[in-house]
Amino acid sequence: MAERNKRNIEVLQGVDRLRVEHKKVVKGCEVQIQHWEKVKGDYEALEDQLKTLPDEVSYDIMVPFGPLAFMPGKLVHTNEITVLLGDNWFAKCSAKQAQKLLEHRKKYVRSALDDLHKTTKNFEARVGFTEDLEKLSGAKGDYVDIREEVRSIEEFVSKGKQRVALKPHSKPKMEAIVKMEEEEGGEGDGGSRRGVLSEEELWARLDELEAKEKLEEEHDRHFGSADTNGNKDTTSSSSEEEKEGDGGGHHRVNGHDERSEGKMTVPHNSGQVNGTTRDREEEEDKGEEEEGNGLPTIYFSHTVEPKKVRINTGKNTMLKFSELKEQKQQAKRKKKNGTSNGHSHHGLHNITTPTDIYKLFVDVKNGEPIPRKSILKSRSRENSGCSDTSESSAADFEERRTFGRTLSHDENTCSDTSDGITEEDSPTGNPLHPIRRFEAFSCTVVEKEPIPSSIPHLTIAPPALPTIPERKLEEVAPEAPREAPKRVSKFKAARLQQK
Amino acid sequence: MAEAIQKKLQSELEKYQQMQKDVSKSMSARQKLEAQVTENNIVKEELDLLDTQNTVYKLIGPVLVKQDLEEAKATVAKRLEYINGEIQRYETLLKDMEKKSDQHREVLSSLQQEYQRAQGLAVGKV
């Protein structure tokens, strides 16, 4: 408002000045007109004089003698007139010739006068306009300023945008994506901004990815191979991520964030989400996989797939090292942070609990070059095989099952040592290695155990089918006492770890 | 810094003022010439109206000198041409002067800005 007032004032001042200038010009013109009118009058008088002068041969007149005196005299040669032509030129001519000249001059004067009149008229009109302008700016008089703000166009534009956006699933997804981005913090912001190239393209891509994800989910549920494959992809991608995104930075290609988030939202919509961040990560990992399959350059910061791991440990025995590793990493993270958000770190780098140290130094302690073996695998095998075994071992197997379950579920693992053991589980699932490992623990554990027979089950179960361990149990049974101390320690160690 | 700029500014300002004066001079001269042109035109026309019987005089100082009509006409025509040429010359001169004055004006404005900036800085410092 202040600005408007200022502007108005300025305009008023300018208009005022303009009016003043116009008036000046008009006045000047009027002065000139007066002058020329006078000249014209003079010329007319002269004309009359010229006409009457040749009537008489001579005239008696009072001749002016200087500025103050007059002298009586005669005016002769009344027809001889010396005319000043201009520019110091004179011409002697008769009265009639003089009249002609006069006429010529009068013509000139008349033209000058006409020009002046025209200019005065113009400037008078301009003055009138400026006065009107003054009235307008001053908001006086009958003039009204009509202003129309251009909001309507904006509304139309927004309406158009809304129309474009009204696709069946697009809007909620977009909102979910926005929410996810907000939840993740600044992670997805840059990528999402980059990704917002064209809404339509993104939605099409989202649809494609959703379909892919659904297919993969089905695969994961029904087929273990799919999971393994997916795990492979995740491991590769996760390893890539770890390599590239150590600092917690997220590598995103245009639109990937939105795609991944779209994928994340899909399970939300489908109702598969548990509401935990882990699930998000899982889906993101899935999205990773999918994208990895379709676009090899996509990288995600989230690497863990606890969902798959859970599924695998529950049903399948084909757990992979990377999966378990990821699981344990997630478990560690959860213990530490309480959320599974953030970059997946190598367990080696984070030493916040004793288990971490243990894990780090495991190989050193034992002097075992072989990587960790998956207890989960053995446990799961035991679980799977336990159902077919004898009653005596049933309780043990149940315990094992509980162990397995606890181990498999990162949330439930209480002791860090168990994590260490699970982490150390090798993908191959060599039964011998855990023995050695447990041997390492054996030095610390002392126990008399009624379930030495079960230990051979543990050791033998993983590689063999559920039925086979029974036979092996029988075979190993005689060997049990020998290995008892070792196995005891191992079992105990596991128990302790479980505790 | 500010003082140097101030000096520069003053010198530039003087130059510009000089230029403006020259421009105005040439403008006035041109206007005079314009008037002469009109006058001579009238004379020429009136001479055309006269015939040879009339004697034509030219005023040279306090003396009226008899002139031939034809001669007078020729003289007037020559004068007219001369005046027109002068006008042309003055016009070109005026254009150049205007260009120079514009350049000077720009320089002056830039210097003024610098000076203001320097003054502003000095004020800030103080």
From TrEMBL, chain A:
Polar residues bias (residue ranges): 383-393
GO biological-process terms attached to the record: negative regulation of transcription by RNA polymerase II
A Pfam entry, by short name: Prefoldin
Basic and acidic residues: bias regions: 215-224, 245-262, 397-412, 475-486
Residue ranges with Basic residues bias: 330-348, 487-499
Chain residue ranges for the region called Disordered: 215-301, 320-351, 370-435, 475-499
MF annotations from Gene Ontology: chromatin binding; protein phosphatase inhibitor activity; transcription corepressor activity
Domain of life: Eukaryota
Bias (Acidic residues): 281-292
Keywords: Cell projection, Cytoplasm, Mitochondrion, Nucleus, Phosphoprotein, Protein phosphatase inhibitor, Repressor, Transcription, Transcription regulation
Any Gene Ontology CC annotation: dendrite
Localisation: Cell projection, Dendrite; Cytoplasm; Mitochondrion; Nucleus
Binding partners and assembly: Homodimer. Component of the PAQosome complex which is responsible for the biogenesis of several protein complexes and which consists of R2TP complex members RUVBL1, RUVBL2, RPAP3 and PIH1D1, URI complex members PFDN2, PFDN6, PDRG1, UXT and URI1 as well as ASDURF, POLR2E and DNAAF10/WDR92. Interacts with POLR2E/RPB5, RUVBL2 and RUVBL1. Interacts with PFDN2, PFDN4 and STAP1; the interactions are phosphorylation-dependent and occur in a growth-dependent manner in the mitochondrion. Interacts with UXT.
Function as written in the Swiss-Prot or TrEMBL entry: Plays a central role in maintaining S6K1 signaling and BAD phosphorylation under normal growth conditions thereby protecting cells from potential deleterious effects of sustained S6K1 signaling. The URI1-PPP1CC complex acts as a central component of a negative feedback mechanism that counteracts excessive S6K1 survival signaling to BAD in response to growth factors. Mediates inhibition of PPP1CC phosphatase activity in mitochondria. Coordinates the regulation of nutrient-sensitive gene expression availability in a mTOR-dependent manner.
Family statement drawn from the similarity comment of this UniProt entry: Belongs to the RNA polymerase II subunit 5-mediating protein family.
Listed name of the protein: Protein phosphatase 1 regulatory subunit 19
UniProt organism field: Salvelinus namaycush
TrEMBL record, chain B:
Pfam families the record matches: Prefoldin_2 (PF01920)
Example of a GO biological process term: protein folding
Coiled coil: 2-36, 80-114
SUPFAM superfamilies: Prefoldin
Entry annotated with the keyword Chaperone: yes
InterPro entries: PFD_beta-like, Prefoldin
A GO molecular-function annotation: unfolded protein binding
Family stated for the protein in its record: Belongs to the prefoldin subunit beta family.
Function: Binds specifically to cytosolic chaperonin (c-CPN) and transfers target proteins to it. Binds to nascent polypeptide chain and promotes folding in an environment in which there are many competing pathways for nonnative proteins.
Name listed for the protein in its UniProt record: Prefoldin subunit 6
Organism (species): Oncorhynchus mykiss
